[in-house]
Amino acid sequence: MKEPWISERCTLQLPGLTVDRHISKPNELDFRGHNHHLLCLLLSEGNQQKITCIGEQKSEKPQLQGEFWICSAQTTGLWAWDSTDVSLMFVIDPLLLSQTAAELSDSDASQVELLCTIGTHDPHIEAIAHLFQAELETEGSSSIGEHLYAESLTQVFIVHLLRKYCAFQPKILRHSNGLPMSRFRPVLDYIRSHLDRPLHLAELAELSGISQYYFCRLFKQSMGVTPYQYVLQQRMERAKELLQQRKHTIAEVAVLVGCTDQSRFAKHFKHYFGITPSAFLKQ
Asked: Could you give the CA distance from residue 17 to residue 95 in angstroms, rounded to a whole number?
């Protein structure tokens, strides 16, 4: 069902998290609560907010560009505004928050409680929001590793919320050294065997036997690059090998390395090798 005050929207669906960029027309919303946590960051300027009530908190100030509010699950709210605004809404599954807390520490994750807030500015949240917005703008045009990137970005986002916006902040364990190569070997073999399809952070972390958050951190410590960067490198190396064989068209090679958009494939290829696939074939 489409909300009447939303004139335009695009959505990125991830495990435990929905990111929704929308344009909202002037309206008044009496909100009876949601099963998920909500975080809404204002992308545009010129907001004319009349009132914002979330739980016991209340504000009659306009929302500034880059500011956000958090409405925790089952919390009521009231919003009224006279402007047309562009916002980024994060719909967060409470289970994702508690599971991530459990993976990061040995504390009782059931105590995790996301705090409601109004008119907050956080440069880290704003930076993460703009990275998600970039993903929304490219979503649907290709799948050459963006799933893995967006899921890694989700981990960064959730961990920051746990650290800064929870009543109970789990003590995150630190790992100063990477894992031995024997722990990553099954992961690397799996990646090279499945370059033609989307790869997800959960499946790679499961192969290594550690949580997704620690997998991302320890993979970079051990390999020198993030999982997303490594997968992209392997896709481009495989593409180069296939082009050298001269058995496939450029479009076919793009599909064989998990990219259905030939123009984006060419962009990545040129970034890594300094030459377009078509120019490479002519050499």
From this structure: 10
Helical (H) or strand (E) element with 92: strand 85-92
Give the residue among 244, 269, 247 at the shortest CA–CA distance from 259. Answer: 269
> Are residues 138 and 208 both part of a single domain?
no
Task: Report if residue 152 sits inside a domain.
Answer: yes
What is d(CA 178, CA 273) in angstroms, rounded to the nearest whole number? Answer: 29
Interatomic CA distance for residues 114 and 31, integer angstroms: 18
What is the band of 140 on the pLDDT scale with cuts at 50, 70, 90? Answer: very low
Beta bridge partners of 41: 68, 88
How is 23-73 classified by DSSP, letter by letter? EE-SEEEEE---SSEEEEEE-SS---EEEEEETTEEE-SPPPTT-EEEE-T
- Spatial separation of the C-alpha atoms in residues 229 and 220, rounded to whole Å: 10
One-letter amino acid at 282 equals K
Query: What's the whole-number mean pLDDT along residues 75-82?
Result: 96
Most confident of 62-66, 97-101, 179-183, 257-261: 62-66
Whether 116 and 190 map to the same domain: the answer is no
- Do 96 and 134 lie in one domain? The reply is yes
Residues 6+ apart with CB under 8 A from 249: none
pLDDT (0 to 100) of residue 177: 62
Domain with 185, as residue range(s), is: 181-282
Identify the pLDDT of residue 110. Answer: 66
Q: Residue 136 — pLDDT band, cuts 50, 70, 90?
A: confident
Q: CATH number of the domain that 20 lies in? A: 2.60.120.10
pTM of the prediction? Answer: 0.84
